[in-house]
Amino acid sequence: MGWTKASAVELLNGERMPRLGLGVWRAKSGAETENAVRAALAAGYRAIDTASLYGNEADVGRAIRDSGIARDKLFVTSKVWNDEQGYDETLRAFYRSKDRLGIGAVDLYLVHWPVPGKYKDTYRALERLYDEGEVRAIGVSNFKIHHLEDLMGACRIKPMVNQVELHPLLTQKPLLDFLRREGIQPEAWRPLMQGRLDLPLLAELAGKHGKTPAQIVIRWHLQQEIVVIPKSVRAARIEENADVFDFALSDDDMARIDGLNEDRRFGMDPDLVGGA
């Protein structure tokens, strides 16, 4: 398809978001996160995904500032955590995140989880931040269809991204169909199933294409027009995860991977997120 590491999707508001990024969930604050981000940028990644919960926003910001890469060439995402939600609370949480990052405007800011009774007020705060130019795009994370329908019945600005757990064992086809109809960009977290890649089909396809099982899964995401943010703190693995633009899965390959679906979550079910 002629994609490269620098290729991007276009969001509802015209902003461009790289198709492949580095996730830093559970990357330790300090050298581990900084070195992972540096390795990713050196390998050609131009998107980094963090969150206030992760405790490593300052490290992400430091690595970006030290990289020498022009700020407008990078795409940085952060998220407001559950106990920070609510209109005023979210505004305060955002400015804490912005200060920790130290990179100016944030490219994408997300509601991390749909906290009942809070997420609509939280999203109103995101709309204000967007109106004021503090963020270039806004969206949500871990929202199911019913959460999105509820939010879109009240919001002024449609979410531009929905970042959800998505992988071969949790293909989320009904949600993907909904997002595509609405023009909301899907983004996958935990795309590599926490390393649970020892599936015979993935081994077979890896052999067929001369790739690793992880590369097969990342390519499967990309060919569905899903933005993907695999997490690693190892430079070699970060480079390997980006080496997915020189081959293509066939329609049959894609369908067989789809057939692995078990509706299996490794993370929390968004319907079980408690109110605050």
TrEMBL record:
It comes from the Bacteria. Belongs to the aldo/keto reductase family. One of its GO terms (molecular function) is oxidoreductase activity, acting on the CH-OH group of donors, NAD or NADP as acceptor. Substrate binds at H112. SUPFAM superfamilies: NAD(P)-linked oxidoreductase (SSF51430). The active site is at Y54. The keyword NADP applies. InterPro entries: AKR, Aldo/ket_reductase_CS, NAD(P)_OxRdtase_dom_sf, NADP_OxRdtase_dom. Residues 19-262 form the NADP-dependent oxidoreductase domain. This is Aldo/keto reductase. Keywords: NADP, Oxidoreductase. The record marks K79 as: Lowers pKa of active site Tyr.
